[in-house]
Amino acid sequence: MSMVPKSHPRYKSLLNRGKVVEAFESGILAKGGLIAHGRGETYDYLIGEKTPKAAEEAIKASAAMLLLAKNPVISVNGNSIALAKDELIDLATELNGKIEVNLFYRTTEREQKIKEFFEKNESNNENYKNNKIILLGIDDANKQMPNVDHLRGKVSEAGIYTADVVLVPLEDGDRAEALVEMGKQVIAIDLNPLSRTAQKSTITIVDELTRCIPLLTEEIINLKQKNLSNNELKQISEFDNKKALNKVLKLISDNITTE
Ligand code: PTJ
Hints:
By secondary structure, this protein is α/β, with parallel strands linked by helices. It is built from twelve helices and eight strands. It has one domain: Rossmann fold (3-Layer(aba) Sandwich), CATH 3.40.50. Strands 3-2-1-6-7-8 form a six-stranded parallel beta sheet, sandwiched between helices. The structure holds ligand PTJ. Ligand PTJ binds near residues 40 and 170. This is 4-phosphopantoate--beta-alanine ligase. It holds the Pfam family PPS_PS. Belongs to the archaeal phosphopantothenate synthetase family.
């Protein structure tokens, strides 16, 4: 896929760029997704291209929140699938297996391409092959979310509609807000701490998607091994999102201030 040598200082970033371009060419990623990715790269630069301390704390709280959830759902779009399909499958496997495809630029053609990408692709994630995943949102998006006029409001009854916790990587703001208004806990992954999604979500992990999904999965496995009570998990899941976002803004401000 990539001609970039591993020794290149920006190897990971260029690899992700390659994945996004490839997904666009195969019809999985929306044209707008290319722009969204560029915006993400900019913010990643500003946070120093590594997981901020505030994101580590958000990951821990999110892991506990997801473990406490009765019906957690991972919402995916073109960008998140292009960048981290296998990692998202591994994460879902540690939960109830539910992944819901929810597209802003929804077309039947894109939905089918995405379904095929999950079903047959060269990496053949074992967890997907072993039927540990329930892929929702393609044939069963029959429910309409209140206050979301565009196609992103079409959701699955078994998935986002009845979910108590929804993980939303790379989201556009109005749906995150509408999910919170429906009484759900929303965990966002968004490199832009100023975005409406980041500001409105219950927990925002300000980190790059491919970097933080494995950390989140690892944290869930960690917490499971500790056999904590629901009360203990509840305590870990308490999170002051505004404070965490301010910490990231301070980090950015420090990073761009020269002596
Ligand atoms: O696949 P579709 O049709 O659902 O379309 C998806 C896009 C991404 C086009 C749509 O949701 C959109 O326009 O998103 P926005 O409003 O551009 O928001 C995307 C957010 O994700 C921005 O705040 C970016 O900074 C952030 N972002 C981009 N790449 C990453 C990221 N955050 C984490 N990791 C990334 N790799």
